[in-house]
Amino acid sequence: MVTAVEQHLKPIASFLKVKLKTNAKDGKSPGNGVISTIFKLLEDSKSNLGPSNTGESAEIQQWIEYGLLYLSKTQGSNLNFILCELNGFLSTRTYFVAHRFTIADAFLFYKLHTVLESLATLEKERYLNVCRWFDNLQGDNTLRQNRTLINFSTNYLGRSSCRGPI
Q1: What is the CA radius of gyration of the chain?
Q2: Signal peptide position in this chain (predicted)?
């Protein structure tokens, strides 16, 4: 049985090409928290997707926590609010932290995949900055893994119109 913590960590471990260590007694992932485990996976992978300074470290932690708190159970008007908030943030940025792809982007990519996959074309058009960011990332087969390639080809990814429900 996959625990909620493992559900968040398995795609990250697979992407970083490191083994998700489990507790020898019960076979479950260690209970030291998602954020600290992600940072440990980063360290084990020797990846450059981690923070380059303490400011970036805080931002990465903030976005992972945001994903855990707000993107785990999204629906209805709550989903609209969250996507509008993310859309606004990405209106002047390519990535969530600094000016480069970090583990925060990878984590949010995995959290948003099923959300964006479930949206109709007209709904996607309301969150053009999120769609632009997501489309940019999904081009990396290693990141996407076996997830469905989401079609944004009918969306004009040059402007955004985050308004109330359609």
Answers
A1: 16
A2: none
